[in-house]
């Protein structure tokens, strides 16, 4: 495996681990405030990010690279509102998308078409996740401070669950 690409993939392992920890923290925040639907949503998101991470670890090792398992810093848990929770979700997904786009760019520079091909799965996944994050944030903007709106949002959120 091209060393520069291996380094970028290992950095991506860290970003996926970071997203997984962030979403677990968000699930826990929601769980302790009565938002059980939101909690379920983020528990599942957290698991999905862990799957994304493991997929990268296996790929690096299968291609005779060395996957390095990163330390993950403490995620945020100081959210003031559901709105802030979902703003953080969208920011996190946008950050990961930018990093994936950078890996793709570097694959083309190094003519590493195998990794380029592998990363297409992540591109498709990010498109879907960002779309869900934007839709949910738009709904919260419509709801504003309306408590019964928050109740219904929490009840219905898992109809928007991202698959995979
Ligand atoms: Fe949504 O971050 Fe993984 O790829």
TrEMBL record:
It is found in: Cytoplasm. The keyword Iron applies. InterPro entries: Ferritin (IPR001519), Ferritin-like (IPR012347), Ferritin-like_diiron (IPR009040), Ferritin-like_SF (IPR009078), Ferritin_DPS_dom (IPR008331), Ferritin_prok (IPR041719). CDD domains: Nonheme_Ferritin. Keywords: Cytoplasm, Iron, Iron storage, Metal-binding, Oxidoreductase. Residues 1-144 form the Ferritin-like diiron domain. Gene3D superfamilies: 1.20.1260.10. Belongs to the ferritin family. Prokaryotic subfamily. Iron-storage protein. This is Ferritin. It comes from Aquimarina gracilis. The lineage of its organism: Bacteria, Pseudomonadati, Bacteroidota, Flavobacteriia, Flavobacteriales.
